[in-house]
Amino acid sequence: MKIKKKIALWLLCCCAFGQTAAQDREDISLNDKQSFISHLLEQMTLDEKIGQLHQCSGRGNFTGPDTLHLPLEEYVRQGKVGTMLNIIGIKEIRKYQSLALQSRLHIPLIFGLDIIHGYRTGFPIPLAEAASFDLAMMEEAARCNALEGAADGQNWTFAPMVDISWDARWGRVMEGAGEDPYLGSKVAEARVKGLQGEQLGDTCSMMACVKHFAGYGAPMSGKDYNSVDMSMGQFANFYMPPYQAAVEAGAATVMSAFNDFQSIPCTSNRFLLTELLRERWGFKGIVVSDYNSVEELINHRVAENRKDAAAQAFQAGLDIEMVSQCYLRHLKELVQEGKVKEEVIDQAVGRILEKKYELGLFHDPYRFCNEARSNRTINSSRIRNSSLRMAERSVVLLKNERQTLPFSDMIRTVALIGSLGKSQFDMAGAWAGSVDRSKIVTLYDALIQRGIKVIYQEGYDIRSGKISSLNASLQAAQQADAVIVCLGERAEQSGESKSKANLNLPEGQQLLVEELAKTGKPIVSLLMCGRPLIFNEVRRHSPAILCTWWLGSEAGNAICNVLWGKYNPSGKLPMTFPANMGQVPIFYQYKSTGRPTRPHVHYCTSYIDSSTEPAYPFGFGLSFTSFRYGKPEIIPSDHPDHAHAFLRINISNTGSRDGEEVVQLYVQDKVARITRPVKELKGFQKVFLKAGESKTVTFPITDETLGYYDNDMHFTVEKGEFIFMTGGSSHDTQEVTYFHPFSKI
Ligand code: NOJ
């Protein structure tokens, strides 16, 4: 049967049987995607095409300014909406899908949601997951997020967020993989793979959305949504790699960022959305704006009005407008005036129809709405178990004096101080709108379940940060075998629009630790937070410190497993922790200067009132065992196509417990044509070593290890000396020199 006839038959079926026709589309055989889409496009009016470019937000679950005033149902029925966000649950999704199928051409909707660290089952915040340096585990975590979301009707998640950031004042650091472009790229790739699975169209996969393109993690003064100003070299070498990695991993969609990039808002930035993304990287998927950001071109003062905003965004290459209605109201006029070509609209609509096709929505618009699958999947043992394993691996041991940890089995009574240890809400983390908070295991719950006697005290007021029950907390400590103090932030203190001018842990929280330490009891301080914080008094007084971030549904169990040594911590910091506010933004990968930092030396890159040393460097994290690194060696390569050479290093577990270590490889290009970082991460491997065991770890040295982008964005590898550094943190490495014999430009 000819495609035209098949489409006519499909439309006939839809008209005759309403929504149910969708389930019975075998007879319209959608075998040929391109013909199906082009014939469908031929039948669409300009209004219907523009409708596909409009995305509406559901009522109630706002992730931006509200949309309560909109006649949503009418819009959908009239084909004025192509995709929706913030519609949660199969019942609601069915409702809107059935309205879409009542539109003239019965084109199904795509449903999208921010599944940032868990749909119903909460996972650690993405920054915490990145601390695991465990790519397979992060892929599995993303897979679980997709499994639950897709089982409950969602087709699209606005994740992963891959914005590099050096600035912990910016609250959204909690959503990304931290400060490093290499780690960020690997994590981006793992997350895209996890979310999208084998292929789009599997009912257990979702479309990923790489965001926020581009440079959103570098707002001036750390204020969310603020202007971004960076050189092309800076962008290409530090910020761009994770976006590119995610696109190369096959991400179906990309979201433009709120900020400007080189003085043009990303929403209307043709260089980013068309030249770089489509022409240079060959991206074939959908570009969606951020929430209302097309209309916000007026606030940026680059557009005079909504019509101008629509023209600029569309001409730049932005397909879908999220929430604001500049396209819906003005694109038609712009076509009629000859300012926008209808064939370009066809291309954008074609991309959207293509994704609907690939998701199988033309075959069956309700294929993601299966209650039995949803019941089977959500909160299943696989997902809970993965959440637990991910959470254990996300914990970073920052200090452990006098072997305070792990607790022995003799610790049976603990004083648990701080309401964060009891708060399901906070353990879910900052972007957990759909997470079932009633199923979060807090530390308090987990301790009780293990038969530990818990003497709980609030200790300090989480809102004011002031000490609220000092005497009672001290008494609790006296009666206990050990003290666990839960410090940090409330979930709503990090995340979107949660920039902070002060990263210091409130004085009351720190003072409390100082007082508790005087009891002489073993004290463990837990930092439950969404970003690097400053806590120098805690560092001084607490013999043991764990950064536990916000770990999601299995938070309590994971923390207990670490405290009692059932899991030996292996996390490493994905962001530098500053020692004071003046150092922020702080990162390990700074560039060489003419006057390098030298302690106590005048006229060099430093502060007169502070050290430049962070509290904890990037890549830092302890274990309950100890590791010894051998000297790194360069081994020639027999296969120069694969690698120029190899770096080999021996690592031994010298302690008495099994453990995992993240072996890190850094490189310094000794002399280059442009200024280069003092060191850059270019490889890591997480190795498990039994007590007493040794292993050899090998890293290939390739163009990617050695090269950089010059200021014209040409990838360059220079001939000459490179210093390789290996070790267990960016500040604790051993060096070897490698000579690269030829250049490549
Ligand atoms: C705004 C955020 O910047 C973005 O990350 C998110 O996906 C959208 N809102 C939709 O909720």
Tell me what you see in this structure.
It is built from 22 helices and 26 strands. The chain has 745 residues and is α/β, with parallel strands linked by helices. Among the domains are: 378-583, Glycoside hydrolase family 3 C-terminal domain (Rossmann fold, 3-Layer(aba) Sandwich), CATH 3.40.50; 627-740, Sandwich (Immunoglobulin-like), CATH 2.60.40. The longest helix has 17 residues, at 135-151. Bound molecules: 1-deoxynojirimycin.
Annotate the secondary structure layout.
Elements: H1 3-17, H2 33-43, H3 46-52, E1 54-57, H4 72-77, E2 83-85, H5 90-100, E3 110-113, H6 126-131, H7 135-151, E4 156-157, H8 181-196, E5 209-213, H9 232-248, E6 253-256, E7 260-261, E8 264-265, H10 270-280, E9 286-288, H11 306-316, E10 321-322, H12 326-336, H13 342-358, H14 371-377, H15 381-394, E11 396-400, E12 413-417, H16 424-428, H17 443-449, E13 453-457, H18 470-479, E14 482-488, H19 507-517, E15 523-528, H20 536-541, E16 544-547, H21 555-563, E17 627-629, E18 633-636, E19 645-653, E20 659-669, E21 680-689, E22 694-701, H22 703-706, E23 708-709, E24 715-716, E25 720-729, E26 732-740
Parallel strand pairs: 1-2, 1-10, 2-3, 3-4, 5-6, 6-9, 12-13, 12-14, 14-15, 15-16
Antiparallel strand pairs: 7-8, 11-16, 17-19, 18-19, 19-22, 20-21, 20-25, 23-24, 25-26
Helix pairs in contact: 2-13, 3-12, 3-13, 7-8, 7-14, 7-15, 8-9, 11-12, 15-21, 17-21
Bound molecules: 1-deoxynojirimycin (NOJ).
